[in-house]
Design a protein that fits this description.
Helix content is about 40%, strand content about 15%. By secondary structure, the protein is of the alpha/beta class. It has a seven-stranded mixed β-sheet with strand order 1-4-3-2-5-6-7.
């Protein structure tokens, strides 16, 4: 693992939590790598935000050449350890989600009900069960209260809270419904991750070893000798100021091979100009926008359009 470069304008430098600067934030990546696997051409040279390493590992197992970059050295070391078979650990995100699941039992979301729901494979059955047993007034009120920005600021740093929709509880509930309308829960491992904390199957062995580098994404791409065919950006834009997004956009354009693609996620809602939004195809339930598009300089604009 190499470790170089840092920048003060990237809020991920400190991390999203108020009480946990850095440390292990994510023990698992909450995104569906099938999006990247569908979007990227075979044997691509891919720049990937490392996170917990799940997306990078899925891409490497599919035969891509992956460079995993993260600004958090603890997170990067964990992703690297997972790539060589070390066991999963719980990060700050998993501890908060476990607390949320415990609270859900108080409003009637028992593990038995959830296990039954996650075993359904018909969208009508899923809809009926959701309406009857899970989408209760108490559940809705609890989610909307817990995801109120005022409460979220007790746990999360302001830039990340500011990136969320003001009615995030309502939006998240709609995203859950969006997924069960389109995807059978029995065949959706990411639903079990979110609702029960059950890990999905591990990806296979990497065809090519992942190169892990500790760096800020913009810093690294501004200096990278490699031209990348694809960029798996996770939700790096959430919480980032506009000047950083502009800089990151320019760095991506510099490091992009002709015809390069990117996938970028955000918790924000799509704006009227959002195109190529694959959020409904992402089985992990959480995202407002999953932007899939080509890197093109003429569409750079203010630097934010490649994220949103």
């Amino acid at each position: 693992m190499q470790c170089e470069f840092e920048t003060k304008s990237n809020p991920w430098r400190r991390g999203p939590f108020q009480a946990q600067p850095r440390g292990l934030i994510f023990g698992r990546t909450y995104e569906d790598p099938d999006i990247e696997l569908r979007a990227f051409k075979p044997r691509s040279r891919i720049f990937s935000i490392a996170g917990a390493g799940c997306t990078a590992r899925a891409l490497a197992a599919a035969g891509h050449h992956v460079t995993g970059v993260d600004i958090n050295p603890d997170q990067l070391a964990y992703a690297e350890s997972r790539a060589v078979g070390e066991p999963t650990q719980k990060g700050g995100a998993e501890r908060l989600m476990a607390l949320g699941r415990n609270l859900a039992t108080l409003v009637g979301w028992s593990r038995g009900k959830l296990a039954h729901f996650l075993n359904l494979s018909d969208d009508v059955e899923q809809s009926d069960y959701w309406d009857c047993w899970l989408d209760t007034p108490m559940w809705r009120a609890t989610v909307d209260t817990l995801l109120n920005p005022r409460l979220l600021r007790l746990c999360y740093a302001s830039p990340f809270v500011d990136a969320l929709p003001r009615d995030f509880g309502v939006r998240l509930r709609r995203r859950l419904q969006r997924v069960w309308i389109r995807h059978a829960y029995r065949r959706n491992p990411y639903a079990a991750v979110l609702l029960l904390g059950t890990p999905p199957a591990e990806p296979g062995a990497a065809v090519f070893s992942i190169q892990f580098i500790c760096a800020d994404a913009a810093d690294f791409l501004e200096n990278s000798p490699t031209e990348f065919d694809a960029f798996a950006l996770s939700n790096i834009g959430d919480g980032a100021p506009l000047n950083y997004l502009r800089r990151l956009r320019a760095a991506i354009e510099r490091a992009a091979a002709p015809g390069a693609m990117f996938v970028a996620r955000t918790f924000a809602e799509p704006d009227p100009n959002t195109t190529a939004n694959w959020a409904a195809l992402d089985r992990s339930l959480l995202w407002g926008v999953v932007k899939v598009d080509h890197i093109t300089a003429e569409r750079a604009g203010d630097g934010s359009c490649f994220i949103y």
